[in-house]
Amino acid sequence: MARTRNIWVLPEINGNGEEISQLSLGLLTESRYIAEKVGGTVTALVLGDQTPDYSRVFGQYEVSRAYIFQDPLLQNYSAEVYVESLLPRIQAEKPWLFLMGHTAIGRELAPRLAALLETGVISQCAKIELSQPEHPKFYRPVYGDQLFQEVIFQTDNTMLVTMDPQSLNVAPAARVGKVRALTIEPKLTAESLKTRHLEYLPADFQTVDVADADTVISAGMGAATDELLPLVEELAGLIEGAIGTTRPVVDGGKIPRERMIGQTGKVVSPEFYLALGISGATHHVGGIQDSGKIVAINRDPQAPIFQSSDVGITADLKDVLPVLIERIKRARDNGEIL
Ligand SMILES: Cc1cc2nc3c(=O)[nH]c(=O)nc-3n(C[C@H](O)[C@H](O)[C@H](O)COP(=O)(O)OP(=O)(O)OC[C@H]3O[C@@H](n4cnc5c(N)ncnc54)[C@H](O)[C@@H]3O)c2cc1C
Question: Residue 3's pLDDT is what?
Fold first, then answer.
């Protein structure tokens, strides 16, 4: 008898316990697409202390069933209690596919579950190919995004996959469907916890994910030089901006890959985007179009970045950056800005 293709999905609820992140809506969309293609059903999993009712959101993504795991020890994420809650259900129901985000949570949870379920994990999956639904193919970027690796599962156990957030789109269905919600009380004990949550701390603008930053200062090839990069970092510190960059700068090893913005990098949507020494190739501009205000500084008046900017300044950064930093410092000392 053909196995029912149940797709389980783990949306991530933000720290305040109310909002479902964009990533999670992307995961729900992906699950919906897969279910449509393979004739499967989608089950969404929510773990928490007192979880709000997400039926309406889930209904928009054709989730047919929601498992709400409720326990005081699930108030904050911990791999140990998540595994203890989920494992018996997975073992009992053997979902066909289990999707999580390739996030701090997914990266920690998926391998733990896989080991206990004697299955594999495909991590940072960018695409799932379902032309033969009985043999799905999974694609993940390797060798610094230069190649895609094609991977298949060689087990009938649940396929665990963490999805690359950048590969996900958000597309609710036209109609809101009905969701059957089942509350599960895993009855966890404090002994299950090997680590303890202390507190949530606000993200540091220097370490925050560029995709989440309100202010982004991007250094392209014209700014990521030995002479100018320290000034860019000083400016970023003064206006509390996260540093972003372009692909050649990353390839040159000056700024880490997770700060790369563009079609093959991150898509950002800050209130303020400052492009320093960036030519404005479509590959880059494709990742900044949702920004509030875009200001570009480039010494070439013909640089394409000016076509995508709200304010364009034709100048050499060697002249501009020291003056800009000096002016901001002075304005701050005079109490003109905070
Ligand atoms: C398949 C593919 C995918 C890609 N994906 C991405 C991606 O996701 N993100 C991305 O960014 N790129 C991506 N690229 C690369 C992209 O096409 C461009 O090559 C890249 O964005 C250019 O980076 P840049 O603007 O920093 O450098 P350049 O194009 O070299 O531009 C440097 C700019 O700095 C200016 N400049 C130089 N010195 C100064 C100075 N002292 N003061 C002021 N201005 C100065 C110059 O006038 C120039 O306009 C991709 C390419 C390919 C083929």
Answer: 67
